[in-house]
């Protein structure tokens, strides 16, 4: 039995989390609910592009895993096109020399890997695959409409105590325990953590596995930019975009058209210098809740809603069109240097995390130099690069543009994830980033929050936090 749907729902944040929440809420609650989506910056949030010489390049979230089924579904439903992330050869630099270099010959590569690291690369692949297999259970649960009231319960339903254990231990501890060698960890695993999360192997094991899966083959992106998924979902959900900054959320009793006093949430926001407010039955917060990133205050809640102090990692994306000074990395002659991505080991003397050639968000210029003056390179660094540092990296360059980010949580296991249910009908999506931050994770959190809000609204407690779902759904077949 269903209760009458809510009149109004507010979502704060129009990144991939907020816009996919709007899409799923519309599916669950139907066409009559008014959905307001608040955004103080650009639709897309951490999915954004930067322009170099008239071409757009991904500046934030750029690659999507072939098994990220929500993102795949969005692209299909919205009629968008995809582009394959171009491969190219990768090397690992330790501050003095290249400790690993890929070859364009598959067989040579295999021999190199086995020669340098034994069968650890294959074992690592199998380790990640096993985690991904379990992770994929979420799609089955969500397609059967099951929801979870906490990130820990969601993870436990996927991978049991093993997944919770990964959240509480560092990747280094987890992989050392699994028998991986120091050399393999330092020369292969640590560089992948640096390029993807700008951190060391002291991040939690779960995000470590997600990061390693981000080095799989078959990665893809959305033609025209990943942010097109957000604008597409916003439109498809028929939500109303409010370009304003939410400052406060307060619980208040209001008399609705039925004449009954009802507890509602007042969302107080600013557009320019003007302060406005509106009342909602349900509110979803789809932005990291900390002072630096969203600055939202919860007023008069009983019990009070805790302050969130999750520290987000500062990362700078720099795009430079120029000619790489490859002699910095290798003694090989300039014209013999064929690497398109250079990762780095955990060395505090290095001023970059990674550097790699990127193609624009339109497919047709894949890895082609824009002119004979060079490719466009994407550099990730902890700090903004100085002119001296750029001149060290490039023999010549004719354009540079940067974007600093508070990119993803600074992982420090054991992780205690923030609550999803902040109050009766107030939900928080970005707590899932404590497990791992990625576009698909935000989409999963959004689907979960929409289902949770729907079931709690209708009193369907049997659809929330069901134990042994994997077994139950197996026998249902
Ligand atoms: C440099 C970089 C590279 C990345 N690479 C990848 C990748 O290759 N693959 C991948 O899967 N993931 C990647 N990620 C992670 C991915 O981009 C994020 O996990 C994801 O985009 C988060 O989406 P979100 O909607 O949850 O949050 P956000 O995108 O941060 O959206 C939150 C939105 O809320 C808005 N907002 C905040 N406060 C308020 C307020 N008070 N009022 C109104 N609006 C507010 C913000 O302006 C923002 O638009 C990367 C991230 C970065 C920074
Ligand atoms: C959620 C699952 C199962 C998989 C996601 C895998 C994935 C795509 C991880 C990437 C995560 C991330 C934060 C990457 C940042 S850098 C991306 C890229 N290397 C670049 O150069 O821009």
UniProtKB/TrEMBL annotation:
EC number in record: 1.8.3.5
Lineage, broadest ranks: Eukaryota, Metazoa, Chordata, Craniata, Vertebrata
The keyword Calcium is annotated on this UniProt entry: no
Cited function: Prenylcysteine oxidase that cleaves the thioether bond of prenyl-L-cysteines, such as farnesylcysteine and geranylgeranylcysteine. Only active against free prenylcysteines and not prenylcysteine residues within prenylated proteins or peptides. Involved in the final step in the degradation of prenylated proteins, by degrading prenylcysteines after the protein has been degraded.
Gene: PCYOX1
Protein name: Prenylcysteine oxidase 1
GO biological process: prenylated protein catabolic process; prenylcysteine catabolic process
Domain spans labelled Prenylcysteine lyase: 100-466
Organism superkingdom: Eukaryota
Pfam families given in the database record: NAD_binding_8 (PF13450), Prenylcys_lyase (PF07156)
GO molecular function: FAD binding; prenylcysteine oxidase activity
Any one Gene Ontology cellular component term annotated for this protein: very-low-density lipoprotein particle
Keyword Glycoprotein: yes
Catalytic activity: S-(2E,6E)-farnesyl-L-cysteine + O2 + H2O = (2E,6E)-farnesal + L-cysteine + H2O2; [(2E,6E,10E)-geranylgeranyl]-L-cysteine + O2 + H2O = (2E,6E,10E)-geranylgeranial + L-cysteine + H2O2; an S-polyprenyl-L-cysteine + O2 + H2O = a polyprenal + L-cysteine + H2O2
Gene3D superfamilies per UniProt: FAD/NAD(P)-binding domain
Required cofactor(s): FAD
Family: Belongs to the prenylcysteine oxidase family.
Entry-linked PANTHER family: FARNESYLCYSTEINE LYASE, PRENYLCYSTEINE OXIDASE 1
Predominant cellular place of this UniProt entry's protein: other
